[in-house]
Amino acid sequence: MLEDRVLILRFNRGDRRVLHRIYDKYKDDLVTLAAALLMDAGSAEDVVHDVFIAFLNSAGRFRLTGSLKGYLATCVANRARNVNKAARRHHGPALEDVPDPACDAPLPEQAAIFGEQLARLSSALLQLPYEQREVLLLRSYSGMRFAAIAKVQGVSINTVQGRYRYAVEKLRSLLDYEAEE
Amino acid sequence: MKSVRDIDQHIGQLRLRASDSLDRRVHADIDKALADKQKNRLPVIGRTIMANPIVKLAVAAAVIVAGLLGLNIINVPHTGSVAWAAIPDRIKAIDTFMFRLTIDVHGKDGATVAGAPTGQWTFYLSEQYGFRMDINGGGTVVSWYVAPGSDTLVTVVPSQKKWAKTTLPSEQIGKMPEEYKDPADYIKRFMAHGYKELGKSVIDGVEVEGIEVTDPPTDGGRLENGVGTLWVDARTELPIRIEIDGTADGQAVQWFMEFKWAEAVDPGVFEPNIPSDYTPLAQ
After folding, report:
1. DSSP-assigned letter for residue A11
2. Do B103 and A63 make contact, defined as CB atoms within 8 angstroms?
């Protein structure tokens, strides 16, 4: 945490070289988050790239009020949501809009981005509505509190807690179903 | 039945590594931005107060003063009792001062805005006593101290009862990025495009005189409908407060700056005075 504060101070003071360190420190977490949100490794990397470019351009204006990782995760979530919306506009409904597929249905190609071993989990995540998936992942990967996620999503904290509860329940039922197979 | 913890552990197994291609793209873009910035730097303007390396360093660390200043200095008419145009020079002659900036950003409904550049920074600068900066944000205060002539930065985190000593990198000692200046320069810029005199008032029992400007300089992006007010002590003719209100991206932005000059600043604030129960911070 303190290292992050020093990194931000150096960055704001004009030492943009620290962005190399910030990127190296959080790149894998952010790519993972973006990929789990979008289930598309290529788009995930584009999102992370764009977040860092925007961050670079914010020199002198950025003020760290929480965790740097939480801030970057928020930026990734916001951009990923835009990418998701754009994809839905261009390609019709996203997978989560389709009625629940049977759990033994062939895995969507996207679900394999985390490797075959985790493809079932990826597939289960993919079946969650986007907003629920976002809450679950921000909570799991970034340790963000419900209040912070509520601000990201522009909804009440109760809504976020509800989305989390539904996401966990649905994931639990999907994974338990698979475990019984 | 899987527990929430099981679900979390499952999700934690999903790991991807950033590709070499992404690494190259991001690092190359950072390097390009660094190179462009170097190319576009403005000439350095010397200042007496900046002659001392420690003060240069201190001001270089002044996060929020970044980008505040320009070089357009014009004479402004003096119609009131305060010699407004003489204020920057008066400030330059003062060795020790305190400058505190509080930035607040709110949405239309008054709600706080996630990720907004809010917080409070307090700087104590003195050629005689050194430098101290307090950063207050996210519920934590971190204080930095540098004694005169020292290349050691002392960091104190009272909420964690921690402290640390760090040797400053040699490239940072005595150097000051051109974009960081001090209150005198900021006030020059503040008044650079004319002002309206507000007359006399009283702030905290002190008789003051004020001026109002439109489009006041702020850190980074320009505020829409920005209005700034500068209040100076009518007796000393030194600034005691600047208030700026405006909007940016549909959000209400408020800057509140406070100043203390010379003997009004207790020299004791420059001493870290680390309590005996504080422990070293892991590096």
Report:
1. H
2. yes
What is the per-residue pLDDT across B89-126, written as a single tens digit (0 to 9) for each? 888 888 888 988 888 877 766 666 665 556 788 888 88
The answer to whether the beta carbons of residues B144 and B153 sit under 8 Å apart is yes
Residue B169 maps to which CATH number? 2.50.20
The C-alpha of B206 sits at a distance from chain A's nearest C-alpha, in angstroms, of 32
Residue B29 domain-assigned (yes or no): no
- Inter-chain touch A19–B138, beta carbons under 8 Å: no
What ipTM was assigned to the predicted interfaces of this complex? Answer: 0.79
- Domains of chain A, CATH where assigned: 2-180 (1.20.140.160)
Instruction: Tell if the CB–CB gap between B63 and A56 is shorter than 8 Å.
Output: no
Q: Tell me, yes or no, whether B68 lies in a domain.
A: yes
CA dihedral B111, B114, B118, B120 (to 10 degrees): 100
Report yes or no: B11 at the A interface, CB cutoff 8 Å.
Answer: yes
Q: B66 CA to chain A: closest CA distance, Å?
A: 6
- Tokens at B94, concatenated: 């003062």
For B86, the domain range is 48-263
Residues A96-152: tens digit of each pLDDT = 443 333 333 334 455 555 666 567 778 888 888 989 999 998 988 887 888 889 988
